[in-house]
Design goal:
mainly alpha; Rossmann fold; 3-stranded parallel beta sheet; 3 strands; globular; binds nickel (II) ion
Length: 248
């Protein structure tokens, strides 16, 4: 079930049988000459919807703007500061907790969000820890799950792309978006074929090191067919992981 397509009464009924919710979280940032700017938000969103078709799960609206300051040297990228994103995550969780949600499963599509999401979880737990006389709210637990690091996805990406997977504008994430939006598949030249790798600092430094936006990846290997395989693998893995989390 998608939260945005449900009525409040349907959410009430869902809460009688489950206290879990999946919150896709991504980013709005360049993904090289072949990847969509929405890649990191689209991937967890389509996987979360697939999970909700497979098992009984509620999917919250995607937090589609993340911590991507290092991508601001490229047109179209939009970023929140770490502190802003932490505030967004905290308010989303507190809103859901007010209704009785106790297991918030953040399905993430952007490596640059990881540190900030974990810091936001610490803020949320600190709210409970600092409450005088204990908290009168149910115990909220949050989990971060990076779809691209799901074991089945990692294995498949390694088999399909080997060293050409890289770490940004990867053929696996681009494939998944092509599968989700086949009418939007891109065609463009890439030079060099495999992008350079290196550290990530600020936006200007990023653009100097990685002129077309990719890191270590050959996005031209992406295909709709691979996207379907990655989607199927991810949905099975993530559904299992989500069920383990909400039942723990
Ligand atoms: Ni990405």
């Amino acid at each position: 079930m998608q939260l945005q397509l449900a009525t409040w009464q349907e959410v009430d009924t869902y809460l009688e049988r489950s206290r879990g919710v999946i919150i896709p979280i991504g980013s709005t940032e360049q993904h090289g000459p072949l990847g969509f700017i929405g890649t990191d938000a689209i991937c967890p969103e389509v996987i979360a919807r697939g999970v909700a078709e497979r098992i009984d799960a509620l999917v919250a609206p995607t937090i589609s703007i993340g911590m991507a300051q290092h991508h601001l040297g490229f047109a179209g990228s939009i970023s929140l500061r770490p502190s802003t994103l932490m505030a967004v995550i905290r308010d989303v969780v507190q809103s859901l907790a007010r209704h009785g949600f106790e297991r918030c499963y953040f399905l993430n599509g952007h490596g640059g969000n990881v540190a900030t999401i974990n810091a936001a979880f610490s803020e949320i737990y600190a709210d409970a820890s600092f409450a005088r006389g204990g908290s009168n709210q149910p115990g909220v637990r949050c989990k971060l799950s990076n779809w691209y690091a799901a074991p089945a996805v990692k294995n498949l990406a390694a088999k399909l792309y080997g060293n050409s997977e890289g770490s940004h504008a990867t053929p696996s994430e681009v494939s998944l978006t092509y599968f989700a939006y086949p009418d939007c598949v891109k065609s463009a030249d890439q030079d060099p074929k495999i992008a350079p790798t290196g550290p990530i600092l600020d936006a200007d430094d990023y653009r100097r090191r990685f002129p077309d936006g990719r890191i270590g990846a050959d996005s031209s290997l992406a295909s709709i067919e691979d996207g379907k395989k990655l989607y199927d693998a991810a949905v099975i893995d993530i559904a299992r992981d989500y069920e383990n989390f909400i039942n723990a």
